[in-house]
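User: Here's a protein and a ligand (zinc ion). What would the complex look like?
Assistant: Let me lay out the input and then the predicted complex.
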Amino acid sequence: MTLETVISRTQKAPAKPETHSGRLTTSICPTCKMIIPATVYYSNGKVLMQKDCSKHGRTIALISSDSKLYEDSFSYNLPGKLHLVKNYSSEYTGNCPLDCGICSEHLQHTCAALVETTNRCNLDCPVCYMDANAGPEKTPSLEQIRGMLELLLRSEVSPPSINVTGGEPTTRRDLREIIKMAHSMGFNDITLSTNGIVVSKRPQLLDELASEGLTEVAISLDGLNDEIFLKTRGVPLFDTKVKAIDTAINAGLSITVSATLVPGVNVDQIGGIIEFAKKRHIDGVNFAPIAFVGRYPKEFLNASQRLTIPDVLREIELQTKGEISVQDFIPVPCPDNRCSTMTYAFNDGRTLFPITDYLDVKAYLDVYGDKVTCGPEGCDWISQAIDKLWSMSAIPGSQRVIKNIDVLSPKLRPAKDVMTIQIHAFQDVWNFDTERIKKCCIHVATQEDKLIPFCAYNNLYRGKQQLPTMKE
Ligand SMILES: [Zn+2]
């Protein structure tokens, strides 16, 4: 039986007529950080958020530059997998997002957890969401990191993907012990986020970490020339990045490059970064429009004309000359549908062939979302494969990704050479939407035994002794 047979025997549910304009949520006052009511609405093809602070007046923020893509994304807002939660670490008090932990009102389990191993970094980047090196040093001991990992084991039915991050985690001398400990505790999907400086100087480091269970390296790559690195990272880094990337490839690790996109600085690098990744057979490319959180140059701040997911999609189509198009991307259903979108493309080193040219991924996602009735043969196998691919826990280039692409597209093209392209829109005090936070599946594991949704952590919890309050 072919995939096409299954899909042709399925019947799509009628499209929902209502729109999501006028949604009520809560957000943050950019000035006093009070949690205040907000309305998200459509205007002239864009999506805006209006909120009023009793002290600081009205703020109108751009949420998305394309109300149609925004609206369409709700088709992929699938229910959370709460059966994968074993324990909640917080009591629900009705003060979302100020009582995160996560609590029983949270709508999704932890797909990927961030383990911050230090707030110290060997760079002082002008752009840094966590404002590394500011404030007192926060470098948890090995035992404290074990506590963070035990929290994840207590919270989840099975160990989630973890991202060992910082600051800069390679500045720790005991990084090898951290990876070894995590692996021995049962964590099998372990990503290291790094700027690549130490890796480029000590190539054997990645071999050592791989031997202890590291599976993936994520290296920041904002562009392909030093002029850009000077603006975003403060120092010329291009040669260092190339060396670090080649080291990771040689170590046999999955590798993802991530660019923080700043309008007027590096948006024109999108096509070049994809081309660079294609030639090197890099497993994943991530684009994150800059979120105005942590540290960033004042001249970068333009919340009303910010880059949103549809802008990045259009630039990808334009800059790859249609090799990858807007239509190839599908929102990731496990976090909130407005947070992330992705696609896969077969890569022969010269051309990218988007998976959507071969498969009706949207129909498969409808199967996954139980929006269609399957034929008598059933279609659990489609759901199971899609579930592993369109997920924040899918590690680009991993055996699991390769296996499941093979399930969906047997013998079409070699799945071992597939590139993941993903856009993730992180939130700041301007576009913060508590509704999105409630479905977040990327959680920071803290030393205080809490799992905090990443964007809530960055905007409300990080480095704070006292949280802001709810508006009365
Ligand atoms: Zn205010």
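Summary: Residues 1-15 have pLDDT under 50 and may be disordered.
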